[in-house]
């Protein structure tokens, strides 16, 4: 569904609709009691592959908060799970791979699987998207599809699990650049396939999450990562494309991927007027409420949100969001209040 008049889609295309659109990364999930209730007895990745559950969890925060879009409930590791990798999500920790991808042989084995397999196995994903879109379209709200970018996915796969500095993935770039490029290139096709399945089933925008891109030196980002991320997004031409990472101030211009992205996500470290000056007049900015501020007294949080909206005026257009995901301990009534505030400004 294209939904060209929805505020989110207009802002991503460069317009300034009457109300500034807002959604939250990780708006679905543990901050919502209705999510915790629905997830009892079901593993995270099983929930992702059960269409009515994935659709229902996608819709919960839209109904509750009145945000301007749903973000498809899934996870960045779902497409590599569909490609046959042994991965689970350990609660409180994150994705853990049974067999980390460390050597040239590991990379050769993993990349011998055709990304086409992901397309074939994505029927539960397409079905969940269709179910979510059927309800969202009644209120004219878009669904945002997403995928993990090659570097962030590789950061988990090479390490075998979450890591602070993603040293093993960054080391592979320099120790065995051929294997790195082979792995990242394969991941770009896998992510593109996963995004394509969601768009085919009705998603009206996509976001590529390169959450950990900020851990890279700019020169390494340009040489080892940006071309692969660009390929992951380049095939998605019918809907607007958002590119997000944390701590990306030094590489923000590169994050536009030469114009392949319509919008870049900005975390809380970089004021949006500075971000707008970096990315220029052809890119929408998305962000950047500090998740830590969600714990602050309302008057402090309100002043922060107003400041974010005011600074966003420097960009060609602005989609309000957090600088990273909703922390699980967030009081959801605070999120609803932020949506009402942003819509009233
Ligand atoms: O509401 C949404 O934003 C949509 C759903 C979504 C999830 N994961 C659901 C999820 C999205 C967009 C993601 C992407 C994702 N997954 C990223 C990129 C975004 C980011 O936060 O930077 C990353 C790095 C992952 C990997 C991952 N998956 C982590 C680090 C975790 C947290 C582990 C934990 O328990 O703290 C997950 C699990 C996960 N993905 C949960 C949810 C709702 C929590 C699962 C649960 O309820 O136990």
Automatic annotation (TrEMBL):
Domain of life: Bacteria
InterPro entries in alphabetical order: UROD/MetE-like_sf, Uroporphyrinogen_deCO2ase_HemE, Uroporphyrinogen_deCOase
Signal peptide region: none
Compartment list: Cytoplasm
HAMAP family per the UniProt record, alphabetical: URO_D
Annotated site, Transition state stabilizer, chain positions: 75
Pfam family, one: URO-D
Similarity section: Belongs to the uroporphyrinogen decarboxylase family.
Pathway: Porphyrin-containing compound metabolism; protoporphyrin-IX biosynthesis; coproporphyrinogen-III from 5-aminolevulinate: step 4/4
UniProt keyword terms in alphabetical order: Cytoplasm, Decarboxylase, Lyase, Porphyrin biosynthesis
Record-given protein name: Uroporphyrinogen decarboxylase
Task of the protein: Catalyzes the decarboxylation of four acetate groups of uroporphyrinogen-III to yield coproporphyrinogen-III.
């Amino acid at each position: 569904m294209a939904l060209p008049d929805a505020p989110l889609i207009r802002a991503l295309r460069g317009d300034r609709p009457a109300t500034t659109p807002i959604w939250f990364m990780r708006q679905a999930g543990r901050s919502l009691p209705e999510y915790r209730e629905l997830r009892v007895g079901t593993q995270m990745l099983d929930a992702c592959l059960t269409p009515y559950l994935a659709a229902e969890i996608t819709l919960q925060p839209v109904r509750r908060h009145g945000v301007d879009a749903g973000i498809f409930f899934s996870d960045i590791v779902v497409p590599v799970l569909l490609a046959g990798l042994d991965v689970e999500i350990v609660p409180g920790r994150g994705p853990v791979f049974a067999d980390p991808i460390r050597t040239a042989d590991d990379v050769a084995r993993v990349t011998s699987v055709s990304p086409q397999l992901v397309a074939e196995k994505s029927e539960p994903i397409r079905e969940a998207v269709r179910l979510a879109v059927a309800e969202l379209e009644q209120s004219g709200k878009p669904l945002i599809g997403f995928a993990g970018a090659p570097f962030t996915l590789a950061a988990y796969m090479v390490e075998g699990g979450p890591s602070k500095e993603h040293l093993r993935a960054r080391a592979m770039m320099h120790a065995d650049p051929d294997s790195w490029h082979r792995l990242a290139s394969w991941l770009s096709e896998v992510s593109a396939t996963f995004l394509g399945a969601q768009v085919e089933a009705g998603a009206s925008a996509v976001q590529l999450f390169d959450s950990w891109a900020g851990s890279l030196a700019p020169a390494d980002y340009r040489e080892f990562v940006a071309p692969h991320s660009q390929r992951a997004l380049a095939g998605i031409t019918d809907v607007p494309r958002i590119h997000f990472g944390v701590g990306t101030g030094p590489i923000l211009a590169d994050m536009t991927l030469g114009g392949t992205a319509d919008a870049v996500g900005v975390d809380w470290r970089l004021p949006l007027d500075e971000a707008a000056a970096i990315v220029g007049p052809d890119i929408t900015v998305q962000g950047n409420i500090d998740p830590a501020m969600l714990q602050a007294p309302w008057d402090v949080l309100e002043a922060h949100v107003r400041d974010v909206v005011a600074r966003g005026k420097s960009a060609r257009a602005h989609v309000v969001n957090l600088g990273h995901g909703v922390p699980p301990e967030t009081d959801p009534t605070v999120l609803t209040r932020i949506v009402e505030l942003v819509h009233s400004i």
